[in-house]
Every structure is written in C-alpha cells, then in structure tokens.
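agent: user wants the structure for DUF1080 domain-containing protein from Anaerobaca lacustris. delegating to structure tool.
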Amino acid sequence: MKHRDHAHPFVRSVAPVLLLAAVAGLLGCTDGHRAADEGWQPLFNGADLTGWTVKCKPADRDTGFWTVDDGTILADSMGHKGHDYVWLVTDREYADFALRLRFQAYRDSPGNSGVQIRSRYDDQAGWLDGPQIDIHPPGPWRTGMMWDETRGVARWLYPDIPRGQWVNQAMANPDLVFYYADEGPGWNTFEIIAVGTQITARLNGVLVTDYDGAGVLDDAVHQRYNVGLKGHIALQIHKADQLRIRFKDIVVRPLPAP
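agent: tool returned. relaying tokens verbatim.
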C-alpha cells in the first residue's frame, strides 16, 4: 500500500476480549530462550528459507529479492522498481495464534512492507488476499496499523475508516516507538495476536491495532477467498518499491479458538 496524506477522523474499534489481553501479557514477558518451553514454534531456522515459499507473478520469479543473510531473512529490492508484489509466504496455515518477530528498518529504504496474516495467494490471479499489519519505514507512525489486501475490500481496517480514505499521522498512537537500524537496539519487535475476529498488534510493546473484525473478516468477500479467519502468514515487498528490511526471531504460538 502507498502513502497518501489525507486527514480523516479516527474511529476506534471494540476492545478485545480478556483472552487477548492475557496472551498479550504473556508475549511481553516471553524471550527467545523460553519460547520453546511455552509452546512457541520457530518459523525461521536462521539458515535457509525452509517452511517458506516466494509468491509472485511469473515475471518476478527470478528477482532473488528474498534471501537469508547473516542469520536473518533479508528483503532487498533496492535499485529495482519494475516489479509487482513479491511475497514470502509460510507453507503452513494458521487460524488463532500469537505471532512474534523482530524487524530491522533502514533510513535510506523508501519502500513499504508488512506482515500478512490469515492470507492466501491466488497463483492464477497473481494476488494475495487477506489482512496485513503494515510496516512503513518512510513514515514510521503508520507501522502497526492494519490494511486489507483482499480483492473487493482494499481499505484500512484499523484505524477503521471507509474505503477510499487514508490514514494520517494524527491517527497514530503518540506513544509509538520505532527504531531504525542506526539507533537504539536497532531492531523492532512486533507482537500480533489473532483470536476469532479480534486482532491486536503491538510495536515495541505499544498497542497500535486493536480491532474487532466481526462482520468484516468473516463476511462473504473474505469467505469467497477463504481468508480473514485462517490462512498463511506472509512478509511483503510492495509493488514497484525499493525496499531493504530484515526479519528474525519469528515464532508463532497456536491458540485455542474462543
């Protein structure tokens, strides 16, 4: 998704159920050494892209934008604009889960990325449907907000604004914390929880998205594409964008249905 500057009022969604809050607290106190003991499953082995598949249109199959470098997943399309969306998609599907990962962003990277959840790639159409938690280094305030890539929807879900309208910085959480590679710890932590139609996303411990998608994520459009409530996790290189970003420490924990 691209950045546009249009001011629109912020519309808050329904607060999450207590289960989400409980899991969020657990995420906040979990570290990599305890992950396996608490039911966390690694999605990246630090050596290769086993468990992941690059999804894109045929013209982009040989771009080599997704690689493993220094124990991280590196997305690098710098110097290349003539490409469509190029995704790195988990082979497995997930329904209710907690996801935790770290990403490193660069000041000289003008491109957009994001983390798709409960999504599905249509090879014939060359399109990935489903909701996305945004990562936008050129405008860090937008990171953690939720967009819907689903065909026929294509709008911001959180902040929950009408299709055709765009988020602006006034809608961002003023407590948001974002680090570039050359400052602070150099890495950002994402925590995403999806239980039923409720989704929360935290960036460096700060709540950004708090969304109840009842009537949206389970509507006829999402059912048609079999997304919104179950699907794959994916990392994005946006169409025509020059992007450099790293991911590591990617773990997921399946959760019981509400």
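agent: one observation worth passing along. The longest strand covers residues 244-254.
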